[in-house]
Design a protein that fits this description.
By secondary structure, the chain is of the alpha+beta class. The chain has six helices and ten strands; from the N terminus they run E-E-E-H-H-E-E-E-E-H-H-E-E-H-H-E. It starts with a strand and ends with a strand.
């Protein structure tokens, strides 16, 4: 029986530009990917779906989330149309998690799509958003902090670690390693987690039932709570075993 499920809600957008992909390599590694495409156009949707599949295949083949994301980030950055001051090309916030036999869980990201693990009833966030709110956190003078919708790194960008670090105080790609254990993995776009947090709730409340039930409950609640113009909301939920 499949251990994962994805749910999506288009929200108030004209086009669903989030995408997920799962790929299992013959080496036994499995990659789970969620991309949040930037924009609201069909060409972004098409690119994001293809990029998610490509990233999942590469990360599983390399049996490491960071190695896979860096390979794809560098590959897109080298495309001629993206180079120079007028560089153009679709982009997406990306998060990828990889499991492999005998190895810990690895997670890597660029942008503000998130990864959580739910273990013993508590959800722990593994990622740290790449956006201006991280660069300019809330303070007494500016209680909201920087604009959380302005991301500072993404798949499809051309800036390397050093350039992003100099401008935003974090590298273009970050990664974490988590010991293998029985847990539930959640990958979520900002349209899925932001409305939950904005309403003083936690994602763990919605991670009950089967993976399909949990993913569907999370995105349905997020869109219902998002206000006048809900974003695309996407969640991928997977039950992991060491």
């Amino acid at each position: 029986m499949r251990n994962y499920a994805t749910a999506q809600n288009i929200g108030g957008r004209a086009v669903q530009c989030d995408a997920t992909a799962v790929y299992t390599h013959r080496n036994g590694a499995r990659a789970y990917v969620l991309l949040d495409g930037i924009g609201d156009r069909e060409y972004v949707q098409e690119w994001t779906r293809a990029a998610a599949r490509r990233l999942a295949r590469t990360a599983a083949r390399l049996h490491d989330a960071e190695a896979g994301l860096r390979a794809e980030y560098d590959g897109y950055a080298k495309e001629p149309d993206r180079e120079g001051p007028w560089g153009f090309g679709p982009k997406a916030a990306a998060v990828v998690a990889v499991t492999a036999p005998g190895l810990p869980l690895t997670v890597a990201w660029c942008g503000d799509s998130r990864a959580y693990v739910l273990a013993r009833g508590t959800a722990r966030r593994l990622t740290n958003d790449h956006n201006l709110r991280r660069v300019y956190p809330p303070c007494d003078m500016y209680p909201e902090g920087g604009n959380r919708h302005k991301i500072t790194s993404c798949l499809g960008a051309t800036a390397n670690d050093a350039r992003v670090q100099a401008e935003y105080q974090h590298p273009a790609i970050e990664a974490v390693t988590v010991p293998a254990e029985n847990c539930r993995l959640l990958l979520a776009s900002d349209g899925a987690y932001e409305p939950i947090e904005d309403n003083a709730a936690t994602v763990s409340t919605y991670l009950v039932g089967t993976p399909a039930e949990a993913a569907r409950d999370l995105v349905t609640t997020a869109v219902a709570w998002a206000g006048a113009r809900p974003d695309n909301a996407t969640a991928l939920v997977a039950d992991l075993r060491p």
